[in-house]
Design brief:
Number of domains: 1
Order of helices and strands: EHHEHHHEHHE
Helix content: 55-70%
Distance between the termini: 15 Å
CATH class: Alpha Beta
CATH topology: Rossmann fold
CATH superfamily: 5'-nuclease
Mean pLDDT: 86
Shape: globular
Strand content: 5-15%
Oligomer: single chain
Radius of gyration: 15 Å
Structural class: alpha/beta
Low-confidence stretches: none
Strand order of the largest sheet: 3-2-1-4
Length: about 120
Amino acid sequence: MKKIIVDTNIIFSCLLNSQGTIGDLIFNSHNIFDFYSNQYMRFEIRKHWNKLKKISKLTDLELETTYDKMLTKLTFINEELIPQSDWEKAETLVADIDLDDADFVADKIFERKPVDW
């Protein structure tokens, strides 16, 4: 199966519209793709929970249910295992783009396997 690292924006899209294309991919392609993410994504989702709730117009329970189901479709990379050199490479790569993406790029570097992001 193809490994894909998903960042927070992809998770936002899935939570905002679980019936859309991204939601469909995450929820219904378990025989085609393996989705990976990290703990930083969880932090960002919780940080923006009220915004997600407002935009999605879902209740806390509905949003929590979708979030919990989505988490079962992800494999989490233990960021503590990523060597400092991989973090430094990731930060260099995203320095002029978005430092918040360094976690996801470090995941890709660490995996050193065919992983899309």
